[in-house]
Specification:
With 344 residues, the protein is of the alpha/beta class. It is built from nine helices and ten strands.
Length: 344
C-alpha cells in the first residue's frame, strides 16, 4: 500500500511539473497576454534592426550588449528580405547574412529576435511567390524550433488602404501551417493590413471592423479567440494613420483584447521633430504601454532619418553616455525611459 501511495505521489508530481510553465516551455500566448519563460507577462519593448539581405548595411550582431544591457531592451525585430523576390531601389547588402550569429548574440542575452520578411509591403505574395515566402520561414523554423526566443513575423505591412482583403487570411494561414508542421511552437507574429497600420486609411473615426485584418480575420487564427493556432500574436504599426489622438488607439486595443488576442506595436517613429508621425508615436507610448501592449521603435540602425539620438549616428549606438545620455531625441527619450521603467 505504501509503495502504491509513493508511486501515485510521484506520478502526480510529474503531472504538476508538466502543467507548470518553465523556462523550457518558452513563451506562450494566454488570451490577450504573452507569457514569458518564467510564467510572467512579457511586454515586447525594443527596436527594429538590420537583418539578412537588408538595404542598410550597419552590422547588427556587435550591438547585442548595447541593446540588452545599456538600453535594457528585450526584443529586436530583424528586417530581412527574401532573396530574389520583388527587388527594390535599395541594395541587398550581405553584411547581416550571419543570421545564426545575430540570433545567438541576442537570444543568448535573453532578447527575443523576431524574423520578418519585408518584400511585400503594401501588397501580398502572388500564388507563385507564396511558396517562396513559406520556404523562407520553414527553413528558419526548422533551425530555431528549439529556441523559444526566436519568433516568426509572417510578412511586413501587407495590403493597402480600404477593407482588409481575404488574401491576408489565406497567406497567413498557409505560412503558419507550414511553420507548425515543422514542429515549431514558437510565437508567430501577424502584421495588420493597410501597410501594417490596420486602419484602412486616414480618419479620426474608430477603426472599422472590415478595415482591420486583425479584428476581421485574427479570431480565425488565434486559439484564444476561437481560431486554429496556438501562440499567435498580432502587430500593427503606428504612423500617420494613427495621428488622431489617444481615444482611437485605446478603442482599437480594447476591442482586440476583448477578443482575447495578444497584440503589440511592431513599428513606430518619425523622421523629425515636427513630422505628423511623431504624434502617433507619442500616443503609442502614452496609451499602449500602460495597457500592457509592447512597442518596437523604427529604427535601431536608421538609414532613413527615423532616429533615436541626435548626431551623425542616430541609432542605438549613437548615445554619448551609456548611463545618462544627453543626446537622445524625443523618441530616444521615450524608449530609454520606458525600458528603465519596465526593468524596474
Amino acid at each position: 500500500m505504501k509503495l502504491m501511495r509513493l508511486c501515485f505521489t510521484i506520478t502526480f508530481l510529474y503531472y504538476l511539473l508538466a502543467q507548470t510553465p518553465t523556462s523550457a516551455n518558452g513563451f506562450r500566448v494566454a488570451g490577450a497576454s504573452i507569457v514569458g519563460p518564467e510564467g510572467k507577462p512579457f511586454v515586447p519593448l525594443g527596436v527594429n534592426m538590420n537583418g539578412s539581405e537588408w538595404g542598410w548595411n550597419a552590422k547588427t550582431a556587435p550591438l547585442a550588449d548595447l541593446v540588452a544591457k545599456t538600453w535594457k531592451l528585450n526584443t529586436v525585430r530583424l528586417n530581412c528580405r527574401v532573396p530574389g523576390v520583388r527587388p527594390t531601389k535599395y541594395p541587398d547588402y550581405q553584411d547581416n547574412n550571419d543570421e545564426e550569429a545575430i540570433i545567438a548574440a541576442y537570444t543568448g542575452r535573453g532578447v527575443v529576435v523576431i524574423l520578418e520578411a519585408h518584400n511585400w509591403t503594401g501588397t501580398y505574395p502572388t500564388d507563385e511567390e507564396l511558396p517562396v515566402l513559406t520556404a523562407w520561414h520553414v527553413e528558419r523554423a526548422r533551425k530555431h524550433k528549439d529556441n523559444p526566443y526566436v519568433w516568426f513575423n509572417v510578412m511586413n505591412e501587407p495590403g493597402g488602404k480600404g477593407e482588409a482583403s481575404p488574401r491576408w487570411l489565406e497567406v497567413h494561414r498557409a505560412v503558419i501551417r507550414a511553420i507548425r508542421e515543422t514542429g515549431a511552437g514558437n510565437i508567430i507574429v501577424c502584421d495588420g493590413a493597410s501597410w501594417g497600420q490596420d486602419t484602412g486609411g486616414w480618419s479620426e473615426k474608430p477603426v472599422g471592423e472590415s478595415a482591420s485584418a486583425i479584428l476581421s480575420f485574427g479570431p480565425k487564427l488565434a486559439k484564444g479567440a476561437g481560431g486554429e493556432f496556438e501562440n499567435i500574436v498580432f502587430s500593427f504599426h503606428t504612423y500617420d494613420q494613427w495621428k488622431y489622438g489617444d481615444g482611437k488607439i485605446r478603442d482599437y486595443l480594447e476591442r482586440i483584447h476583448a477578443r482575447k488576442m495578444a497584440v503589440f506595436i511592431g513599428e513606430t517613429g518619425a523622421p523629425g521633430d515636427v513630422d505628423e508621425r511623431r504624434t502617433a508615436a507619442e500616443t503609442s507610448y502614452r496609451v499602449a504601454l500602460p495597457m500592457g501592449v509592447g512597442i518596437l521603435a523604427w529604427h535601431g540602425q536608421p538609414g532613413d532619418g527615423f532616429a533615436l539620438c541626435k548626431g551623425k549616428n542616430g541609432g542605438v549606438r549613437g548615445i554619448d553616455d551609456p548611463v545618462n545620455p544627453t543626446n537622445l531625441n524625443w523618441h530616444g527619450r521615450l524608449l530609454w525611459d520606458a525600458a528603465r521603467a519596465q526593468s524596474r
